[in-house]
Design goal:
Layout: H1 13-30, E1 44-51, E2 58-68, E3 71-75, H2 86-93, E4 96-101, E5 104-112, H3 115-122, H4 136-141, E6 149-154
Protein backbone atom coordinates (compact mmCIF):
# COMPACT_ATOMS: atom_id res chain seq x y z
CA UNK A 1 0.00 0.00 0.00
CA UNK A 2 1.39 3.36 -0.93
CA UNK A 3 1.51 6.37 1.34
CA UNK A 4 -0.34 9.66 0.92
CA UNK A 5 0.13 11.49 -2.35
CA UNK A 6 3.11 13.76 -1.90
CA UNK A 7 3.00 17.19 -3.43
CA UNK A 8 5.56 17.43 -6.26
CA UNK A 9 8.49 19.81 -6.02
CA UNK A 10 7.68 23.11 -7.69
CA UNK A 11 10.58 25.58 -7.94
CA UNK A 12 10.16 28.88 -6.11
CA UNK A 13 8.30 31.56 -8.04
CA UNK A 14 11.40 33.79 -8.27
CA UNK A 15 13.29 30.96 -9.99
CA UNK A 16 10.51 30.32 -12.53
CA UNK A 17 10.18 34.03 -13.33
CA UNK A 18 13.96 34.37 -13.69
CA UNK A 19 14.03 31.38 -16.05
CA UNK A 20 11.27 32.92 -18.19
CA UNK A 21 13.04 36.29 -18.27
CA UNK A 22 16.27 34.57 -19.30
CA UNK A 23 14.49 32.67 -22.07
CA UNK A 24 12.92 35.87 -23.43
CA UNK A 25 16.31 37.61 -23.31
CA UNK A 26 17.97 34.71 -25.14
CA UNK A 27 15.28 34.92 -27.81
CA UNK A 28 15.72 38.69 -28.21
CA UNK A 29 19.50 38.43 -28.46
CA UNK A 30 19.78 35.38 -30.70
CA UNK A 31 16.29 34.61 -32.11
CA UNK A 32 17.21 31.01 -31.34
CA UNK A 33 14.84 30.30 -28.47
CA UNK A 34 12.40 28.56 -30.81
CA UNK A 35 12.41 24.81 -31.47
CA UNK A 36 10.19 22.32 -33.24
CA UNK A 37 8.67 19.55 -31.17
CA UNK A 38 10.14 16.12 -31.62
CA UNK A 39 8.12 12.94 -31.61
CA UNK A 40 10.69 11.56 -29.20
CA UNK A 41 9.66 13.54 -26.18
CA UNK A 42 10.87 17.08 -26.73
CA UNK A 43 8.31 19.86 -26.68
CA UNK A 44 8.61 22.74 -29.10
CA UNK A 45 9.03 26.37 -28.10
CA UNK A 46 7.31 29.36 -29.66
CA UNK A 47 6.83 33.00 -28.78
CA UNK A 48 3.16 33.95 -28.49
CA UNK A 49 2.23 37.60 -29.00
CA UNK A 50 -1.13 38.71 -27.60
CA UNK A 51 -2.79 42.07 -26.95
CA UNK A 52 -2.96 43.13 -23.31
CA UNK A 53 -6.58 43.00 -22.15
CA UNK A 54 -6.24 46.25 -20.21
CA UNK A 55 -3.53 48.17 -22.07
CA UNK A 56 -4.04 46.97 -25.64
CA UNK A 57 -0.26 46.77 -25.96
CA UNK A 58 1.49 43.76 -27.43
CA UNK A 59 2.62 41.19 -24.87
CA UNK A 60 4.97 38.31 -25.64
CA UNK A 61 5.61 35.06 -23.81
CA UNK A 62 7.65 31.94 -24.55
CA UNK A 63 5.53 28.76 -24.51
CA UNK A 64 6.19 25.06 -24.78
CA UNK A 65 3.89 23.24 -27.16
CA UNK A 66 3.30 20.12 -29.19
CA UNK A 67 1.55 19.83 -32.54
CA UNK A 68 -1.89 18.39 -33.13
CA UNK A 69 -2.27 18.54 -36.90
CA UNK A 70 -1.85 22.21 -37.83
CA UNK A 71 -2.59 23.38 -34.27
CA UNK A 72 -0.20 24.24 -31.45
CA UNK A 73 -1.25 22.81 -28.07
CA UNK A 74 -0.09 24.10 -24.69
CA UNK A 75 -1.22 24.47 -21.07
CA UNK A 76 -2.43 27.69 -19.45
CA UNK A 77 -0.32 27.64 -16.33
CA UNK A 78 2.41 29.49 -14.50
CA UNK A 79 4.87 26.68 -13.92
CA UNK A 80 2.12 24.69 -12.09
CA UNK A 81 1.43 27.66 -9.80
CA UNK A 82 -2.21 28.60 -9.15
CA UNK A 83 -2.94 31.89 -10.90
CA UNK A 84 -3.91 31.91 -14.56
CA UNK A 85 -1.11 33.32 -16.71
CA UNK A 86 -1.63 36.79 -18.17
CA UNK A 87 -1.24 35.50 -21.74
CA UNK A 88 -4.23 33.18 -21.22
CA UNK A 89 -6.36 35.99 -19.77
CA UNK A 90 -5.34 38.11 -22.77
CA UNK A 91 -6.33 35.34 -25.21
CA UNK A 92 -9.69 34.94 -23.51
CA UNK A 93 -10.34 38.66 -23.99
CA UNK A 94 -9.08 38.64 -27.60
CA UNK A 95 -8.36 35.19 -29.13
CA UNK A 96 -6.42 36.63 -32.10
CA UNK A 97 -2.65 36.39 -31.68
CA UNK A 98 0.59 35.68 -33.50
CA UNK A 99 3.06 32.89 -32.86
CA UNK A 100 6.72 33.28 -33.75
CA UNK A 101 7.89 29.81 -34.71
CA UNK A 102 11.00 28.27 -36.23
CA UNK A 103 9.20 28.46 -39.58
CA UNK A 104 8.17 32.12 -39.23
CA UNK A 105 5.21 34.11 -37.95
CA UNK A 106 1.87 32.29 -37.80
CA UNK A 107 -1.45 34.02 -37.11
CA UNK A 108 -3.41 31.99 -34.55
CA UNK A 109 -6.69 32.00 -32.69
CA UNK A 110 -6.61 30.69 -29.12
CA UNK A 111 -9.31 28.60 -27.50
CA UNK A 112 -9.72 26.13 -24.65
CA UNK A 113 -10.10 22.46 -25.55
CA UNK A 114 -13.13 20.82 -23.91
CA UNK A 115 -14.73 17.39 -23.63
CA UNK A 116 -13.23 14.48 -25.58
CA UNK A 117 -10.76 16.78 -27.35
CA UNK A 118 -9.38 17.96 -24.00
CA UNK A 119 -9.11 14.38 -22.73
CA UNK A 120 -7.24 13.29 -25.87
CA UNK A 121 -4.83 16.22 -25.79
CA UNK A 122 -4.32 16.01 -22.01
CA UNK A 123 -3.15 12.40 -22.42
CA UNK A 124 -0.39 13.60 -24.80
CA UNK A 125 1.37 15.99 -22.40
CA UNK A 126 3.26 13.39 -20.32
CA UNK A 127 4.92 12.15 -23.53
CA UNK A 128 6.87 15.40 -23.85
CA UNK A 129 9.64 16.58 -21.54
CA UNK A 130 8.99 19.94 -19.95
CA UNK A 131 5.57 19.39 -18.36
CA UNK A 132 6.67 17.15 -15.54
CA UNK A 133 7.13 13.84 -17.41
CA UNK A 134 6.21 10.94 -15.15
CA UNK A 135 5.07 13.43 -12.48
CA UNK A 136 2.66 15.20 -14.85
CA UNK A 137 -0.53 13.95 -13.17
CA UNK A 138 0.89 14.59 -9.71
CA UNK A 139 1.73 18.18 -10.68
CA UNK A 140 -1.76 18.65 -12.12
CA UNK A 141 -3.35 17.22 -8.97
CA UNK A 142 -1.47 19.79 -6.85
CA UNK A 143 -3.56 22.58 -8.40
CA UNK A 144 -6.96 23.50 -6.99
CA UNK A 145 -8.58 23.60 -10.44
CA UNK A 146 -8.19 21.93 -13.81
CA UNK A 147 -5.43 23.33 -15.99
CA UNK A 148 -6.83 24.64 -19.28
CA UNK A 149 -5.56 22.91 -22.41
CA UNK A 150 -5.08 25.69 -24.96
CA UNK A 151 -5.30 25.13 -28.70
CA UNK A 152 -3.76 27.75 -30.97
CA UNK A 153 -5.42 27.26 -34.34
CA UNK A 154 -3.72 28.65 -37.43
CA UNK A 155 -5.88 31.22 -39.25
Amino acid sequence: MSGPLQKPFIPPRWFVRSFWAGHRLLYRLTARGLVRPEHHGRMGMLRLRTRGRRTGRERAVMLGYFRDGDHFVTLAMNGWAEPAPAWWLNLQADPAAEADTVDGVVRVRGREATGAERDRLWAEFPRYNGWGGADFERHAASRSQDTPVVVLEQV
